Amino acid sequence: MGTETTSFCDDSHIASVVNFFLNLYKMQLEAPDSAPYKIVPIKSQTNSPDYIYELYVERDEKWNSRRMTIATIGEGSGSKSKCFKVAYDNLIVVKIPPKPMTDFVEYVRNIRAEGRVAVNLAPEIDYVAPGVTAILKKIHPFPDGEDLSPEELERKYIKWLVKEPEFQECLKIGDAFVFFMDLSKNSFLSYIVDKMHDKRMFKRKFREEIMEARNLLWDILGFEGKYGSENLSICFEMNKIYSGYETKIRRLLKKYETFCTVSPYEKQKWFLDYLAEKEVKKNENNLPDVFVADLNVLLRKIVKENSIYVSAYKKAVRDYVTKTTFAQNRAKMAGIIINIIDLLASLKERGVAIRDLKPDNLFVVGNSERSAQDYSLGLIDFETSVKLKTVSSCISQNDTRISGEKIGQPLLAGTPSYATPSHLFRNEVLKDNFDDLPRILHLQDWQAVIGMIYNVVTGECLFDKTRKLLSKITKDAQDAIRKKQPLSDAFKTSSQLFWSSAADEFRKSLSKKEEILKSVEVFVPENARTMFLEDVLKEKNNVGKTIRKYVVSQVILSSKKNRKSLIQSSLEKIVRYRTKLEKGGIPETSLEGRKKIIKLLQDLETLKLQWEKQDQWISILQQPRPKMSVYELLELMFNIVLRTMYNPEWGTLFYEHDDNFGYDGGGGSRETTIVYEDTITYE
Questions:
Q1: Domain map of the chain by residue range?
Q2: Number of H helices, E strands in the chain
Q3: Cα torsion angle, 370, 374, 380, 385, sign
Q4: CA end-to-end distance (rounded Å), the chain
Q5: Could you report the per-residue pLDDT of 214-264, keeping only the tens digit for each?
Q6: Which of 633, 610, 324 has the alpha carbon at shortest distance from 456?
Q7: Distance, C-alpha 366 to centroid of its chain
Q8: Rounded to two decimals, what is the model's pTM?
Q9: CATH class belonging to 321-524+642-675
């Protein structure tokens, strides 16, 4: 029988997982099911998002205990699976399917389905696929288990479960099977990224900076050297504020006659503590409660009366802490990004599209504190993945090796911050709109990588507003099916809405974070260099064709000479000619004619700018060991994704701001995957 305990978590799924591991502990102890137990929550001392539990089981009139921790991976509703990370001897991912699975044969079939995709990645890409070994080795280790490969051991356990079906219950939560993945000592990428941008850690550093730099308020040169000459006036003002504080604290101490012995250091510490947003606590140094209350009132009043200068001082400190923290993490950020694009290129080489890449689905193999070459990234989730049949299939639709091969229909799912409209529509709809289905599926991973790279450097979501459109797109597709309208048309309309928002948000976000995005530089790995160069060359060729087609089709400057000149002219020459027209030059041209020519030249400027940008990227990528800023890398990748996934013939991109267009994916990196498979019903 159990003992009722007060839990720090009300999540019923977490409670069920904790109970699962309690029962596992009973089996390890060989205690009966009826053995008394207790589950005691332990208060975290580190403000960690993990829940900690002490598990107690009584056996032979003796209480045995052990500890476990658990945290949700991907919060929210509507997820494809509920996922949790559990520390129980080692790190285990527990994945509860959205639909209860009670048939063992179906369960094994699902495990093997993910395993087949994962095997295609070896040995270049590390992976952890679901399996029964992660749990069964804890309760029924085989004598020769250490000598078997992971694949052999997994097969042996499945055969054993067929012979001993009662042990199949060890893999269930409630009446349904769940999936387990053994991550051993690997860390999630999301954990490392979150740690770099941890607001609680930043707040602690901010407070430490104020306390440790106490002497700078009275050291003009030191203050200027640390916080900059532009903040020097703040030092003088803070000196005045402190002088006023000293006068008032003397009066307060005089009121409490027994405090004449308070040291100057203590008085200074009270002042700095309050600047660091920490009130003086009661019972501190045996101070009477009434004195502490009056002291906090005094400090609060001083800060309020001088809020302009105090706020300016805090801003200077925050800016310094932000700058130094970013500098400390810059090399780590670059290393992570190098490994992300290396993984992306390796996926292309292996002919696999994951379609739900995100920090919660990646783990770090090795030490991320070291250089990029000393660790790599592995994958843990293959539910949405699809095999693109051959390596060449994601490069060229004309390769005869893929002739007649059919790409399987992947699960219609994606995480809103990293997904595109193409995640929501089946293969036949995508084929109606694109010439190269494998390339579209592959570029879905590009879009996810773009979002991850931005998140690594800034700690923020790149497509914070755009992600809310996914639920609207789903509803529009539902409406199209109900009204028996072509889904291809719904896809085009949805794409126009989505990419208008995405392009606008991308431009604004990069502009806002331009300084730090340009300050992080990465060496492009050889496989990624090859991948990027192929795509940029292809895009340059496409832009060249678009320029030629546009010039030939226009009738304003229709002579062969003019058309040849427009096609061959540089961006600089086009701009110069357009500027001359706008200033009233070329008097023989009518006003109406000038307007048409100006519009023509403006359109060409956009295309010529793209052409020259492609040339710049090609020049960089043709170097033996190319180096790019994150800003340039994001521009390159988003340009290719946008130009491939959106056809200008579907309509001009626009942006209409609306904070209420549907699903709000929530903040931070703990974002769930949304399944659309059962939302958009195909007849």
A1: 1-73, 198-320, 321-524+642-675, 538-625
A2: 21, 18
A3: positive
A4: 51
A5: 788 888 899 999 999 999 999 999 999 999 999 999 899 888 876 667 888
A6: 633
A7: 20
A8: 0.85
A9: mainly alpha
